[in-house]
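Journal club prep — side note

Before the paper discussion, L.F. wants everyone to see what a predicted structure for a comparable chain looks like in token form. Sequence:
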Amino acid sequence: MGKNRIGIYPGTFDPITNGHIDIITRAMKFLDEVIVGVAENAGKDPMFSLEERVQMVEEEIAALNGGGNHIRVIPFSNLLMDFAIQNQASVILRGLRAVSDFEYEFQMAGMNARIHPAIETVFLMASERHQFISSRLVKEVGRLGGDISHFVSPRVLAHMQVHFENGDPKKLIQTFEEN
């Protein structure tokens, strides 16, 4: 039997969307194991704490793992390529929604290949129904009271509603204006 193909799907997942779940599900067709690496990424000023984001991802993955899939959720704050080596991954998995994503992802893939050439970056195009979904837009629409139920699971929606209800209105307005 061949070597296990372990892939890392890194991201902030603030929050995890249906688009992220689509990429994970499709990756399971060609990877033996997917590690969802939840990045601390404090520089992005996430809406949810690292612990909350890990919890939301774990809740979403629990529904997928019922079919015998091998998906793990691991938070990380170090260099992605070091995280990949620590977890014996041979693939970095990235989703692309549009051409605008490609330039940044292409640069990152090149940098990562220079750091550790044995780890390949694999790009999956977003499914047509998920091409426009981004965590940033989901948060913006949700903050303004828009219907985001088509973009996130009911579990994530519940987390977001609690967060909006308990959030500081000044911070919500300020955050929206900054974007």
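L.F.'s comment for the group: The two ends are 50 Å apart (CA to CA). Keep this in mind when we get to the figures.
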